[in-house]
Structure formats: structure tokens, C-alpha cells
Automatic annotation (TrEMBL), chains A, B:
Molecular-function annotations in GO: inositol monophosphate 1-phosphatase activity; metal ion binding
Protein name: inositol-phosphate phosphatase
UniProt keyword Cell cycle, yes or no: no
Known EC number: 3.1.3.25
Taxonomic superkingdom: Bacteria
Record's catalysed reaction(s): a myo-inositol phosphate + H2O = myo-inositol + phosphate
Keywords recorded for this protein, A-Z: Hydrolase, Magnesium, Metal-binding
GO biological process, one term: phosphatidylinositol phosphate biosynthetic process
Keyword Hydrolase: yes
Positions annotated to bind Mg(2+): E68, D86, I88, D89, D213
Gene3D superfamilies: 3.40.190.80, Fructose-1,6-Bisphosphatase, subunit A, domain 1 (3.30.540.10)
Cofactor(s) it depends on: Mg(2+)
Length: 263, 263
């Protein structure tokens, strides 16, 4: 693939999708639950995924698409070119706040992240990265992540993980919350990765993320020198749900060894 | 006081202060710690408080000012007209993120909140309310808060309060986190109250807030039918630090009785 022209194509596609999402607030939004009562999906999530997929199939017929809402391909490996798409990451925010959600898209070639996009739709803020070509916030190049220590770090993590849960020893997360400078939670994995890539938080931690939540953000985070793995320190899983920690390189290992003990 | 002209005066003053804060990013910001290592203050917090106080003293010589940085009056009662000011609420965000902080201002007459302002400086978003005159987001009137039940509510609360702490039985907060639809944390009490007043979250809870953190937001929240008390259900404390819960009226009592057990 010719990376520069794909980048221009994708930016244009994402902006058009964002326009459609903003327009959707003029119409009725139908909210349903998926896996559990708080796992929301709307007709707009589905419409936007189908919009992306129809364009990608027409313009890139050899590529495969792995999308949250299931209109894409069944993906069991990352051979060739795979687009990993979340049409609306942060659907709960979309429904309750009408803001703080994002389009998340990563394009991978044989498992290597080549292009990553996170579009904060309501703020019209685009974060993007090109493998070995830099990461950008509205076309302004982002700096390499600063080194921090735990005591001066701000981490993004949901309060859910401070209580007993099936994924992680919560005594470790409680200790982490006590040791860091601050904890934030914005309700969109994609936006939280964009905030990490742009230096507003120093780590993002979640016990349960899907490939489309992290695919775009991982390209961004790696391009500014950050690390992204599961809690065992392995490459973040792009085929199924897994634990996830992304951080600047100076605290990533410490988060794994000192605080995040997988059950 | 003539409320309409004071409202116009204050809006203009806040916008000028916001301009000064945005300009401060062009210069060096000096960061210090206050009560503990993570309780930050900068030269800009101090400059902005002094800016407000000099203007208020000149133009409203009979009024008193209660400000976070201590340049105002010593306040031991709320007689007469008192301005409660936080020049930068969310100083940690100001320092680390250069966004997600606010100017917070409430004007009280004999203990009654007459005017409330929360200015999201970087987004140029002004939330304000006039006692019995409505609450507004950028001059668009806000609706009365919707009724919710706990299971469909989004609450703003820091993850800190899910671990053992001196203020509240954390088993209760962990249960709350499990029972609600979602938990968010933005790192600025003023902004979180503005988000409550504008319906983006359904409650805001903190174990330790100061009068200037909540004075402006309380006018907003009450004007859209919300309730704001300490954990004992008493009027929120405007003279000293206290626990704090603000919510729509359909869940406020349930938060107090079922979840927030003060130690």
C-alpha cells in the first residue's frame, strides 16, 4: 500500500463519518444493550460501521475489516492488510453526554500497525500516526513521551478496577491509586490512548479491552515511544479481548511488576 | 446588589481572567506543592486570584472575598455579600494537561447563592446560573435535571475513594461503583459540577472539598433542581472542608442512605 495516499483517504473518510455522527443528534437515536445492561450500542454505531465497511470494500477490495459491530470480516489472524475499527468508542458517553467519544481506526499489515487514527468527533480533534512517520494532534507533531516516575504520574483507569474483580488483584490497583499523583477516567479507551500519546496522562490501564478499542491508539502510543502490552507483558492482543496497559517507557515495566497482578 | 449588572460585570471579568490564563502558557509556570506533594499551586493561580481580588475590592468595596490562595478575606461567616473564588480549579490538570481546569466563582448574599460561574478556560465554555433566573451553558438555558435510577446513572467520583480512606466506608463506594452504569473522573470539582448541571453526569461525589471548589457549582446545580449536601445530608459547607455529594433529586437521598457511609 502507498501509505501517504491511504493516510489522506482515511482522514477524509473519518471526517465524513464524524459529520454523519454529529448530524445524528438531529434524529432519534435508538439505544440497545449488548453483553450486559451497560454495554450500549445504538443504530448510529451500526450505521457508521457499515458506512466505513462499504467504502473500504469498494476502494480496497483486498483488505479485511475487523469491526466492533460485526459487519466486517471474521478475523482469526492478521495476515495481509486488516482495518480494525470502532465506529463509536465510548458509546455510553455518546448516549449520555453527546461528547467524549471517538472514532478509532488502526490499519495493520501482517500484524504491524501502519496507520492509527483517533477522532474526537465533537471537538473535531484528530490524533493520527504513521508507522515511523510520527504522531500528530491536528497535524501538529507530538513529542516523544516524557519520562515520569510513579509518584508524579497521572494514570487513566476506571474506578471499577479498584474493587474486587475477576481480572486483577485489586489490592494492587488500590496501592497504585495511592502512589500516583492522580487518576482520571474519561470513558473511552481510544480517547484515553490519545491523551496518553499527547502527554495528558502517563498511562492507561484496563482489564478488558477488545482489538478495535486499542488498534488505532497503539500506533499512536508506539510512535511517541510508549509501550502497550497485556498484563503479562506480551504484545497487546489484536484478535481477542485481553488486559491492557499502555504507558511511557519509564513506568510501563513498574506498573506490570509492582501493581498489576493478574488473577 | 443589582443582579443583572453584576452578572454582566462578572462574565466580563472571568473572560479577561481566562485570557490571562491562556496567555500564561507562553511564559514559564512555576509549580509548588501545598498541603501534600500532589496538592499543586502555581504562580498563575496566585496571579489570577490577585487579579480578581483587586478588581472586586475596587468595584465592590463592601464585599468580601474568600479565595483558595488566601489573598482575600478571612471568612468565618457568610453575612453580607461574599465572593467564593477558585482562580484555577483543577491545578493538576492545568499543570499536566494544559486543559480541563476552570475558574470557579460563587456570589452569596447572607448565605444564599445568588450567582454561580464555572468557566472551562481552554474550551471557552461558560456555565453560569442566576438564583431563580435559570442556569446556562454558553447562554443556552439548561434543562431541569432528568430523573435517573442508580442503575442508569453515570457518577463522577475519583477512584481514590474506592480504597480504604479516612472519610468513608469504602465497601459502600465499591458497591456504588458496581451498581451504577458508569464512573468518570475529570480532576476538577467545578467542571464535574458543571457536567452535572448540564446532564452529562448524574452525580458528583467527593470526600474532601473546600468552599471555593463548590460555591459556584452549587448555584448551577440547584438552579436545575439538583441537590448538594455533605454526607450527613446537611447543606454543603461553605466555611470549611467537608464531604460533598451533588446529584439529581431522584438519586441524591439513595446515595446518602445506601452507599455513602461516613466514618
Amino acid at each position: 500500500m502507498e501509505i501517504g495516499s491511504m493516510d489522506r483517504y482515511i482522514k477524509s473518510l473519518i471526517k465524513e463519518a464524524g459529520h454523519r455522527i454529529r448530524n445524528s443528534f438531529l434524529t432519534d437515536i435508538v439505544v440497545q444493550s449488548k453483553a450486559d445492561a451497560n454495554d450500549l450500542v445504538t443504530n448510529i454505531d451500526k450505521d457508521i460501521e457499515q458506512f466505513f465497511i462499504s467504502r473500504i470494500r469498494k476502494d480496497f477490495p483486498g483488505h479485511r475489516v475487523f469491526g466492533e459491530e460485526g459487519f466486517g470480516d471474521t478475523i482469526e489472524d492478521l495476515e495481509g492488510i486488516v482495518w480494525l475499527l470502532d465506529p463509536i468508542d465510548g458509546t455510553m458517553n455518546f448516549v449520555h453526554q453527546k461528547r467524549n467519544f471517538a472514532i478509532s481506526l488502526g490499519v495493520y499489515q501482517d500484524g504491524v500497525g501502519k496507520l492509527g487514527y483517533i477522532y474526537d468527533v465533537m471537538n473535531d480533534d484528530l490524533y493520527h500516526a504513521i508507522h515511523q512517520g510520527g504522531a500528530y494532534y491536528n497535524d501538529e507533531q507530538l513529542n516523544p513521551l516524557p519520562e515520569t516516575d510513579i509518584a508524579t504520574s497521572i494514570i487513566a483507569m476506571n474506578a471499577t478496577w479498584a474493587g474486587p474483580n475477576r481480572y486483577v488483584d485489586h489490592e494492587g490497583t488500590i496501592r497504585l491509586i495511592r502512589d500516583v499523583r492522580g487518576v482520571r477516567s474519561y470513558g473511552s479507551a481510544a480517547l484515553e490512548l490519545a491523551y496518553l500519546a499527547s502527554g495528558r496522562v502517563d498511562a492507561y490501564i484496563s482489564m478488558r479491552l477488545s482489538p478495535w478499542d486499542i488498534a488505532g491508539g497503539m500506533v499512536l502510543v508506539k510512535e511517541v515511544g510508549g509501550l502497550a502490552t497485556n498484563f503479562s507483558g506480551q504484545d497487546a492482543n489484536l484478535l481477542e479481548q485481553d488486559t491492557f496497559v499502555a504507558a511511557n517507557s519509564s513506568i510501563h515495566q513498574k506498573l506490570l511488576t509492582d501493581y498489576l497482578r493478574k488473577k
